[in-house]
């Protein structure tokens, strides 16, 4: 049974949770649950994911049976083409449903942190509570440092300007900033999860001074253990004062030098690394961790890992700003292709905005800051949802290689994260 929400046009506008509307009836159903029956939302989404997985497994089994039972010589090619076409149509329908379910799951995470997504880029009034929810309520402390740098890199001095100051930019520029911020949030979540895991396991890279100090502590610990086992050593033969208490002994030990933990005494390097990562006051920052990546690792971490995720990045941006390809053609016609320098190109863009030759936005600094933080949060939540869907149901489609987002590509995957603030 498919549930549809019936309402008037005004009511739909008031209850729309985000600019992108569902493409499928099942997407409409889970959006209805999220708005009206939130306690039923998770169960409804998980049920649909499970149904799609079962359908795909049944389709794969049927295809194997056809190949097994039909001799190659007597196989009707036209019949095979028909079956494949039917499976392709079904697969596309399932993928559209998966995208709708993933998008609704992203919206649920906004609901959980108490933030309503902006349905349009109209000027809004910022609140400290919303800004806190979009930052501290989503990101770890390490990731939050990179988020701040990204906002400053995107907005420049306007990042700390008076929130009601007006700015004007082309819709294409605003869309590119928004898409870059989604991809940045996606990237930060990927590297932060990896960073937190390696830190918990004590696998973070150490600089040369830390490695030397660690070896010196291990050698000292080994000498201390050898001395304790040797009855002729001065430390073992020196009698202790009968008046000495356990507290005084421990106090004397702490004055002479640092005590050794069980991990140090047993030579358990993994546990030792975890202890040091936990007790170290100055931990390796996330930026330094990212800069330690080699080229292959960086390339891997800066790509969307599913075609569904890439499609949602483009769909969310397009729903908020309009047809991105049309905006790009409009800008190219206005500024031309013969600019000889970046300065000349930016002058032409500004002239096109001022003259009205391209579609533009006039918004407050606060609205742009809110849009950037919301986009980062969207990318972060998208990565979390993507991980859940692939881990629990294995429904995601590998992306097709394509150009960077906003370069005229379609809904393919493989987009690289703009290196802004990283």
Automatic annotation (TrEMBL):
Q: Which chain regions cross the lipid bilayer?
A: none
- Residue spans with biased composition (Basic and acidic residues)? 55-69
- Composition bias of kind Gly residues appears in 405-415
Ranges for region Disordered: 1-23, 55-78, 225-263, 399-422
Pfam families the record matches? DUF760
> Which spans does this entry mark as compositional bias, Low complexity?
233-262
Recorded superkingdom: Eukaryota
InterPro entries in the record: At3g17800-like, DUF760
Name of the protein this chain belongs to: G1204 protein
Q: Which organism is it from?
A: Coccomyxa viridis
Recall the taxonomic lineage recorded for the source organism: Eukaryota, Viridiplantae, Chlorophyta, core chlorophytes, Trebouxiophyceae
């Amino acid at each position: 049974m498919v549930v549809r929400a019936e309402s008037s046009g005004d009511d739909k506008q008031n209850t729309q949770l985000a600019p992108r509307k569902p493409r499928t009836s099942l997407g409409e159903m889970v959006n209805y649950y999220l708005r009206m029956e939130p306690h039923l939302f998770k169960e409804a989404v998980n049920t649909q994911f499970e149904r799609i997985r079962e359908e795909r497994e049944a389709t794969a089994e049927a295809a194997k049976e056809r190949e097994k039972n039909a001799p190659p010589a007597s196989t009707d090619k036209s019949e095979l083409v028909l079956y494949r076409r039917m499976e392709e149509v079904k697969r596309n329908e399932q993928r559209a449903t998966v995208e709708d379910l993933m998008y609704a799951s992203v919206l649920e995470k906004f609901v959980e942190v108490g933030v309503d997504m902006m349905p349009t880029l109209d000027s809004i009034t910022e609140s400290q509570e919303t800004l806190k929810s979009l930052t501290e309520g989503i990101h770890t402390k390490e990731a939050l440092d990179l988020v701040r740098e990204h906002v400053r890199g995107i907005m420049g001095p306007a990042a700390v300007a008076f929130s009601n100051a007006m700015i004007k930019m082309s819709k294409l520029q605003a869309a590119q900033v928004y898409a870059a911020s989604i991809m940045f949030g996606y990237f930060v979540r990927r590297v932060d999860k990896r960073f937190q895991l390696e830190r918990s396991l004590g696998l973070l890279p150490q600089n040369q001074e830390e490695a030397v100090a660690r070896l010196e502590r291990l050698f000292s610990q080994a000498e201390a253990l050898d001395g304790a086992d040797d009855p002729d050593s001065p430390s073992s033969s020196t009698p202790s004062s009968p008046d000495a208490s356990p507290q005084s002994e421990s106090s004397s030990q702490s004055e002479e030098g640092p005590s050794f933990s069980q991990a140090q005494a047993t030579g358990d390097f993994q546990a030792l690394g975890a202890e040091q990562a936990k007790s170290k006051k100055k931990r390796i920052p996330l930026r330094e961790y990212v800069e330690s990546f080699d080229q292959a690792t960086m390339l891997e971490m800066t790509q969307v890992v599913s075609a569904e995720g890439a499609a949602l990045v483009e769909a969310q941006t397009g729903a908020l700003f309009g047809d991105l390809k049309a905006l790009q053609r409009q800008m190219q016609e206005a500024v031309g292709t013969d600019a000889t320098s970046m300065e000349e190109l930016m002058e032409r863009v500004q002239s096109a905005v001022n003259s009205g030759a391209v579609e533009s936005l006039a918004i407050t600094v606060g609205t742009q800051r809110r849009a950037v933080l919301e986009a980062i949060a969207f990318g972060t939540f998208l990565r979390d949802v993507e991980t859940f869907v692939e881990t629990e149901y294995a429904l995601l489609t590998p992306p097709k290689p394509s150009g960077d987002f906003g370069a005229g590509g379609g809904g393919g995957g493989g987009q690289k994260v703009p290196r802004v603030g990283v």
